[in-house]
Amino acid sequence: MSENGFNRRGFLRAAGAGTALASVLGAGASAAHAAPAPAPAGTAGSGSGGRAVCDWLGTSGWRVRIGSAQLLVDPYITRFPTGLFQEGEEFDSKTSLTVDAATVDRIAGDPGVVLVTHSHWDHFGDVPHIATTTGARVVGTATTCNLALAMDVPTSKVSPVKGGEVLDFGDYTVEVVGSLHSRNPNYSMAFPGVRLERPATRPATIADLPEGDTLAFQVTVGNGPSLFFMGASDFVERNLEGLAPDVAMLAAPSTTRTHEYVPRLMEALDKPRKVVLVHWDNFEVPLENPPKPDTTMAFTPQELADAVRAVSPQTEVVIPEYLTSYTFR
Ligand SMILES: [Zn+2]
Ligand SMILES: [Zn+2]
């Protein structure tokens, strides 16, 4: 409780940002419903139309369509219970990994690429199933790739990255950014550690999927916007220098352990014109709107939106709904 009070004071450095609320909400809605702009002339060679259409999959998950290409970021669709969100229950680190294949297949579509920020179950749990059934390429840390290999993803379909790579997928590029995992109240995280070799046995429980270091990704559409995707709420400030994305998917912090999270992040990203808040929802209930907030977090999504606007009043903040298309150009 006291954390919230402390945090609000730390976050809300500027006053008077509230007047932007109505226009920000309007702008958020218009992201989904704006009339399509004609593709600029002379952009032949890129079938992207200069835009990315993004559907939120809950947590930090996205289905992104760029022209005829489709990619996924941290798709976690199964959303099985672990005790994290259930009243009167304890978190069970031995919870079995399961996949709701019918739901995953329906929502995941046919991606060419799956970007994985880190290998915790709520980011990676559905990825081996998606990769093995669609043939999608998995891009992630060495740990993510080793876990994928142990879960039957073929070697030719795993692409280990560290941060600094700029991968060219034709209609879009992916710049990999070395990043950091969120802090829990003990300044730590669940299941720390790495897998530097392919595990001898197939991961079976959520504890078998360690964090494995954390990445962020900047996806840049040919003749279109750049979108920064986070999967966890910490970052290496110096690694963000010069990225200046048009749109940033910002992960909500669950605690106050990271100093001045929103102000430092917004400054490091050069105050993107649009911010979409992610990983603030209860990810152990089905993907049905309205999303249920994770009530154990230090901030509500609305408080985070206010914190973003306090640093950057001109930024449009979107609190997304599930499986709703947001078009960025
Ligand atoms: Zn995590
Ligand atoms: Zn997570």
Bound molecule kinds, no repeats: zinc ion
Shape, please? Answer: globular
Multimer state: single chain
Strand order of the largest sheet: 6-5-4-3-2-1-14
What proportion strand?
A: 15-25%
Sheet/helix structural class: alpha/beta
State the order of secondary-structure elements, H for helix, E for strand: HHEEEHEHHEHEEEEEEHEHEE
* Nearest-integer average pLDDT: 88
What low-confidence regions span 5 or more consecutive residues with pLDDT below 50? Answer: 1-45
User: Main beta sheet: strand number and arrangement?
Assistant: 7 strands, mixed
Q: Considering the protein shown, what is the CATH homologous superfamily?
A: Ribonuclease Z/Hydroxyacylglutathione hydrolase-like
CATH topology: Metallo-beta-lactamase, Chain A
CATH architecture descriptor text? 4-Layer Sandwich
Overall helicity: 10-25%
Radius of gyration: 19 Å
